[in-house]
């Protein structure tokens, strides 16, 4: 028996990257998966991949900036497969105008649109999903946050706030929905090499080697690393886990910063770059 047999799942941003891998792994474990994404062409390609190994999936066009689309997404999964057991809140809208930079650079409109692009989507998707989960007396919601929800980077106030807010929302919703046997957890990935990042690093192999050196495991993450964590949190093996921010970052966030700086300085001394490798 597969771990998620007879479960129905929605993955937002499920066309590719972390969401794409998550949709495939959920299907491999027996779930029926609705891939909700604005990129319908790539979503359909992922559906075909899932069907090629005997999985069950469909795609649904969703703009997470549109509340009506989010509500329709939940209804579509229930109408198609009769219930909803799993929701993976993974999507976020890229390139929101005026949302880049720190507090001095971000515009009022950029801030509002940035919060709508992720925080409101997570709120609304959960709001519409939970009543359906109550009908089956169980459910699992997984919010894809980031190590950026735990450790801050410069000039990224909107992104850092997104990811931090998702952790607070996860814990609060875990309290509210626990009595209904609905578990809510978050995952905090480190640097994950998705399809787009793989192309970037192929053009910069020396920089990628330096990047990997930052991790205690001496490698960056793959999308399947996060997908495997999602499957675990949605399975019966995690039935007593809720409100967790699971860090899946190859040890990146456990390092003492001054020790990390010494190690990287030594690495640079031992691996001087030539003009060709810069």
Question: Your description of this structure?
Answer:
The protein is of the alpha/beta class and 278 residues long. It has a single domain, classed as Rossmann fold (3-Layer(aba) Sandwich), CATH 3.40.50. The chain contains nine helices and nine strands. The protein has a seven-stranded parallel β-sheet with strand order 3-2-1-4-5-6-9, with helices on both faces. β4, α4 and β5 form a beta-alpha-beta unit. α1 packs across α8. The longest helix is centred in the middle third of the chain and has 28 residues. It is globular, with a radius of gyration of 19 Å. The termini are far apart.
Write the layout of secondary structure elements.
Layout: E1 8-12, H1 17-28, E2 32-37, H2 40-52, E3 56-61, H3 67-81, E4 86-89, H4 108-135, E5 139-144, H5 157-177, E6 182-189, E7 192-193, H6 195-203, H7 205-213, E8 221-222, H8 223-234, E9 245-248, H9 257-270
Parallel strand pairs: 1-2, 1-4, 2-3, 4-5, 5-6, 6-9, 7-8
């Amino acid at each position: 028996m597969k771990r998620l047999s007879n479960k129905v799942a929605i993955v937002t941003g499920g066309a590719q990257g972390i969401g794409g891998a998550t949709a495939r792994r959920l299907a491999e474990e027996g779930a029926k998966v609705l891939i909700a994404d604005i990129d319908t062409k790539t979503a359909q390609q992922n559906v075909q991949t899932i069907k090629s190994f005997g999985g069950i999936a469909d795609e649904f066009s969703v703009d997470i900036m549109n509340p009506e689309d989010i509500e329709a997404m939940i209804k579509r999964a229930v109408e198609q497969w009769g219930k909803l057991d799993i929701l993976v809140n993974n999507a976020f809208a890229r390139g929101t105008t005026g949302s880049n930079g720190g507090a001095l650079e971000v515009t009022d409109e950029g801030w509002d649109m940035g919060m709508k692009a992720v925080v409101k989507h997570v709120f609304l998707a959960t709001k519409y999903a939970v009543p359906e989960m109550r009908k089956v007396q169980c459910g699992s919601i997984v919010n894809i946050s980031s190590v950026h929800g735990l450790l801050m980077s410069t000039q990224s106030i909107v992104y850092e706030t997104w990811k931090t807010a998702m952790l607070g929302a996860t814990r609060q919703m875990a309290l509210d929905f626990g009595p209904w046997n609905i578990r809510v957890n978050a995952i905090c990935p480190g640097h994950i090499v998705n399809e787009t990042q793989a192309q970037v690093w192929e053009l910069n192999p020396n920089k990628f080697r330096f990047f990997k050196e930052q991790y205690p495991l001496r490698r960056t993450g793959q999308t399947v690393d996060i997908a495997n964590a999602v499957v675990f949190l949605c399975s019966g093996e995690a039935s007593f886990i809720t409100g967790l921010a699971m860090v899946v970052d190859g040890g990146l966030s456990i390092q003492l910063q001054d020790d990390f700086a010494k190690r990287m300085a030594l690495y640079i001394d031992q691996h001087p770059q030539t003009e060709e490798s810069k």
